[in-house]
Specification:
This is LUD domain-containing protein. By secondary structure, the chain is of the alpha/beta class. The protein is built from 5 helices and 12 strands. It has a single domain, classed as Rossmann fold, CATH 3.40.50. About 20% of the residues lie in helices and about 20% in strands. Strands 1-12-7-4-2-3 form a 6-stranded parallel β-sheet, with helices on one face. Strands 8-5-6-9 form a 4-stranded mixed β-sheet. β5 and β6 form a beta hairpin.
C-alpha cells in the first residue's frame, strides 16, 4: 500500500506530469450545506444581528424611502452600479462619488456579492454597486442592501458563487476588537456601525 507521502513524491518525479490536473480530478465529499431546510433570510438576519449589526427587513418598493432615513448627517458615497431605484430617495447634495476623500464622508451605501446565513457574513467582491475596497474600510457608517437571492446557506455555497480572482472582503458585523484588556472597542479598523437592509 502506497502512503500519501510516497504518492506525492512519485508525482513530483514524473516527467511531464500535470499536478494541477491531478488535483482537479480528486473527488472530495465536502458537506456543501449545513442548513438546507432552514429559512436562509431569517437565519442570516439572526446571525448578522448577533454581531451587533442593525437589520431592517424591507421590500424593494420601501427601500428608496427607508434608506434615506437611515443616513446620518453628512454625505454618503453611492458607488457606480448600485441600482438607481434603491437610492432614488437620497438627495443629490447628500451623495459623494467613489473618488471623494473618504475622510470627509459620513458613510457608504453598497450592495454585496453574497451573504452567508450560517455565519452572518457579507461578502463584497467590489464589483458594480460595491465600489473599491477602501469604501468599506474608511467611512464610519456602512449601509448594505442584501437581496434575499444573494443569501447562501453557508460558506461552501457562497464560494461557488464568487470569483476567486476578484478582491473579496468578508464582513461579519461592525469593525471591533477586544485586544486591549478584553474590552470591546468598535470602529478600530473599519465602520463602527453596520446597517443591513434585507430585501
Amino acid at each position: 500500500m502506497t502512503t500519501a507521502r510516497e504518492a506525492i513524491l512519485a508525482r513530483l518525479g514524473t516527467p511531464g506530469g500535470d499536478p494541477a490536473a491531478e488535483y482537479a480530478a480528486l473527488r472530495r465529499a465536502y458537506l456543501r450545506q449545513h442548513h438546507p431546510d432552514t429559512d436562509r433570510v431569517s437565519l442570516f438576519a439572526e446571525r448578522v444581528a448577533d454581531y451587533r449589526a442593525i437589520v431592517h427587513a424591507v421590500s424593494e418598493h420601501e427601500l428608496p424611502h427607508v434608506l434615506p432615513r437611515a443616513l446620518r448627517e453628512g454625505r454618503y458615497v453611492v458607488p457606480d452600479g448600485l441600482p438607481p431605484a434603491w437610492t432614488a430617495g437620497i438627495e443629490p447634495a447628500r451623495r459623494a462619488t467613489e473618488h471623494t476623500d473618504l475622510t470627509t464622508v459620513a458613510g457608504v451605501v453598497t450592495g454585496c456579492a453574497a451573504a452567508i446565513a450560517e455565519t452572518g457574513t457579507l461578502v463584497l467582491d467590489h464589483g458594480p454597486g460595491q465600489g473599491r475596497r477602501a469604501l468599506t474600510l474608511v467611512p464610519d457608517h456602512h449601509l448594505v442592501v442584501v437581496p434575499a437571492a444573494r443569501i447562501t446557506a453557508d460558506v461552501p455555497e457562497a464560494l461557488t458563487r464568487l470569483d476567486p480572482t476578484r478582491p473579496l472582503t468578508f464582513i461579519s458585523g461592525p469593525s471591533a476588537t477586544s485586544d486591549i484588556e478584553l474590552t470591546r472597542v468598535e470602529g478600530v479598523h473599519g465602520p463602527r456601525t453596520l446597517k443591513v437592509f434585507l430585501i
